[in-house]
Every structure is written in C-alpha cells, then in structure tokens.
Amino acid sequence: MYMLGKDSLDVRFVIIHGMGGIGKTTLANIVFNQIASQFDGCSFLSDIRELSQRGKIVKLQKRLLSDILNFKSIEVHDTDFGINMIRGRCRHKKVLIVLDNLDKRDQLVMLAEKCEWFGPGSRIIVTTRDSSIFTNNASIHPKEYHFYEMEEMHHSFAIQLFSRHAFKSDAPPREYDKITREIVKIIGGLPLSLKVIGSSLYRKRDEVWHQVLAKLKKTPHKEVREVLKVSYDMLDYEQKEIFLDIACHMAGERIGDAIAMWWACQFYPNVNIPVLIINSLMKMENDHIWMHDQFRDFGRELVRSESFKHPGERSRIWCTTVAMDVIRKKQGTKEIVALKLGGQSQVCNISSEDISRLVNLRFLELDGGNFVGDFQNLLFELKWLSWQNCPSEFQATNFSPSYLVVLKISESDITNDWGGWSQIMGEGRLKALHLVSCRRLIKTPSFSTCSTLERLVVKDCDRLVEIDPSITMLQHLKHLEINGCNGLRVLKGAPTTLNLGTVRQSWPDSLGHLKRLSTLRMEKLELLEHPNSIGDIFGLQELSLSDSFVE
C-alpha cells in the first residue's frame, strides 16, 4: 500500500513478483478490492499468460475497455486498434488495473505500456514470476515502477494455513503437532502447496499422514510440482480425468456444460468435483471453472510425460501447432481424448481420414476450418464440440456424433438453414447449445430433434429476430439465456431459468405460460409496455431487473 501511494497524482506501476504458488494473485486481489472505490474505472485481468498463449489479447483489450468505460460490449478489431482505444479513451481517467500473471513484455505493451495512457493518480498492478521482463528493459523509469517481491510465509503462519485445511482450525491437535511441523518444514512457506497437501490430508487415517510425509521427504525442497504430485496420486481414476480435462482444456468453461460432458463419460461429476474442490485443486467462480495456473502447468506436464517424443500418443493436445502437426502427419492414435485445432491464421480442414484413428476423441475445439468428406461410423465418442469461426457451408456428409452433449458455435457466419444443423443435432442427446456472435443468424435452428436440451445460450447475435417455436417442445430446458440480441421479436418457450439482456421489445405474452420458470434475469431491457403477464408465472422465485425500464 505504501508503494501504491494513494495520495500521489503520478501514474504508478507496482510489480508483484515471486515464484508460482506464493500468493501474488491473492495479494493483488485483496489490494484491488480495498482501493477500487477510489478510482473512476477498474479492471482486474486474470491470467494473462494463458489467454495470450491462446491468442486472446484482443479479448483482454476488450475486457479492459469494457470494465473501465462501463460499456457492455466494445468492438476491437485487432491489437493495434485496441492499443489506440486504450490510449485514447483512458488518458483522462483515474484507473486501477491489475494485470495478473504477465510473462512477456509484449503483453504489457498491448494493455498498459505507458503512464501517459492513463489519467493522474492511476495505478497499474502487475503480478509476474519473472521480474526481468521489466528490469532488462532500458526504457523503464525507476520512479514509475515499484517492485514488491513476495516472500514465503513465516513458519507460524504456514502452520496456521496448513491447519485450516487439514483440521479446519488454526492449530493442529496435540497428537498431530509433531507430524504437522515436519510436513510444513518440508513444504516451506508456499501457500498453494500448504493448502493442497493440507486439504488432501483432511480426515485421513494416521497411516496416510505418514505415507505423505515419507513421499515429501523424497522430494527436493520447494519443488512445487513434486509436492502437487503427492496430492494428485491420491485421486481416483475419474477424479484424475476431470483434473486433466480442466488443466488442458476446460478452465474458464461453464460448470454446467462440463458436468454434462463428464456425466456422459461416466465420471460421476456430482461426486468427484466436490473432492477436487475440497482438495483445493479447482474452484467454481460465477458458474465457471477456475484452476490455479500452477495446477494447470502441473497437469499439462503430466500429459506431456505420457509421450515426450510422440505427441500423437498423448491423451490431450491443447497446443494448436502441435495438434495440427499431428493431424497433417496422420500421427494421431486412440490415446487422444481431447484436441484443439486451428486459430491464429491456421486453417485446418479435417477429413474423415484425419480423424479415423482418433476413436476415443471426446472433446474437440476447432477455430476455423471445416469437416470434409464422409464421416460414417466416426466420432462415436465425441461429447463436446466447440467451433469458432465456423464457415457458412458445411462440407461433411454423414456427420452424426451420436453422443454429442455440448455444442458451442461462436463468431461464425452460419444461418438457420446451415447444412450442419440436421447432421450435428440429429441424434437427440444434446444437453447444451451455445450460439454466440453468429453474425448472420436471423432465426435459431429447429429444436425438434433436441428433446434432451437443458441449456440454451444465444448471445450477441445482432441480426437474430426469432427463437424457433419448437423451443416449446423442450420439456427439459432449465436455462435459457438471451443476451445482446437487439433485433429479437419472437420468444416462446418453457424454461426454468431465463436471462434476457439488451433487448428492446414488447413483453412476450408467451412468457406468462412458462409455469416452470423459476429464475428470470433481465439486463438493460427496454420494454415498450408494462409486463402484465409476469403475474402468471406462478413458479417464479427470483426476479432480477438490472438497468431495465418500461417506456
């Protein structure tokens, strides 16, 4: 707080640096929450390292501008455009920005490079494992950059933190005092390791405690990954599969969608997700999955170790360059269960021959490209298909992933008569459908073959006019979210959860027939008339109207 100098009118950068798992993000988050009210605009950008590796810097720029300017949606065409917008729109505002987990200088350049981008009194907090990306740059002015090195916890606090997770108290019981001190001495003062090992020992037998102590004694001091492996090895098969899915592909996804896939895989998520949460290996935040980057790195290293020389023999491939190399060289094997392809100007058309050997593929994320050829008797295990920049023409035939439960299509030119609808949605097992930023979509596809659908999200489809009337056939639909579809005029259905956002229309009378509706959320809804029929929704338990009004 002293380094931040709250009464100073200069623009100041505070760099919090230290090893992974030492608490940099936690500290930044606490400080952010304490001082946010003193600024005109605030933005906390989480895990920049991971998002930039996935080519999402433009999305980070959009998020920063949206937070600072308090706009729901801001268009950023490319990184240069984003830099100019940040520089032009924020220079008269006193802002607080947290750039969490920076690992390259270029990330700072594209988000908050110079003091003159921001108004007097602005503060930019950066967390990083590597402070040399700042100190090695000759253009840095010492008066603008302040460095705070995170140190390990004092031994007494380390015991307290460990005890909170191992015993749900601030100190160990007398009979566990000695072994607790031994374990904490080996782990050191790393909060992440203390939480994980402590959580894994909660309510465990004495023999397990001694087994863990023996394993820890064999690990080099402060080797975090080896410490994490002790906890990972205690998981069951299904728990390990869920953990690796999150580490490699699913951090940031909605928990409801993930649960649908894991149920279809018979991983029993209702039992195993709580185990991972209790063991501090994952979190749920705002209905989304969250995992510490240290766990993600650890999980990915476990997958790499499955075959260091031959990526096609690994269970998961999240790096698009490696994945495309495997596909092009036809080196894929039955070991692959999850795959990410395309993106960053790499167009990848997938033929039936490319995919024929991936008989256990259950998760596929595709950016651009197309499916080409006859897919008869293929993709029987596919449970999740996420397709960004999907082309308007569907080139595959007999494309029927029989057990698909999650379909996500975004930033695409598809229309309601797109050729893929009848093939992809024809098997009737779909649980979740997301249509996001589909620029040419005027009407949603028919839901007549999707009687099992439970979640429907239609977001930022500017030209959307109508939700297909077959939505009334969805007897299992529990969650309907419609946001940023300004042209929507016709809405019918029977969901239990409804989220309407940024819609200017007459109140749909059909909503009065939604007897199963339990939650209704509306953001920036401009109604042309008073919603009289809302009184007919007898099952409504929660009503939230955010920035909405009636003319």
TrEMBL record:
Gene3D superfamilies: Helical domain of apoptotic protease-activating factors, P-loop containing nucleotide triphosphate hydrolases, Ribonuclease Inhibitor
The organism's place on the tree of life at top rank: Eukaryota
Domain (NB-ARC): residue spans on this chain: 10-169
Keyword Repeat annotated: yes
Sequence ranges assigned to domain Disease resistance protein Roq1-like winged-helix in this UniProt record: 238-307
Keyword terms of this UniProt record: Leucine-rich repeat, Repeat
InterPro entries reported in the protein's UniProt record: Apaf_helical (IPR042197), Disease_R_plants (IPR044974), LRR_dom_sf (IPR032675), NB-ARC (IPR002182), P-loop_NTPase (IPR027417), WH_DNA-bd_sf (IPR036390), WHD_ROQ1-like (IPR058192)
Name of the protein: Disease resistance protein L6-like
Record lineage: Eukaryota, Viridiplantae, Streptophyta, Embryophyta, Tracheophyta
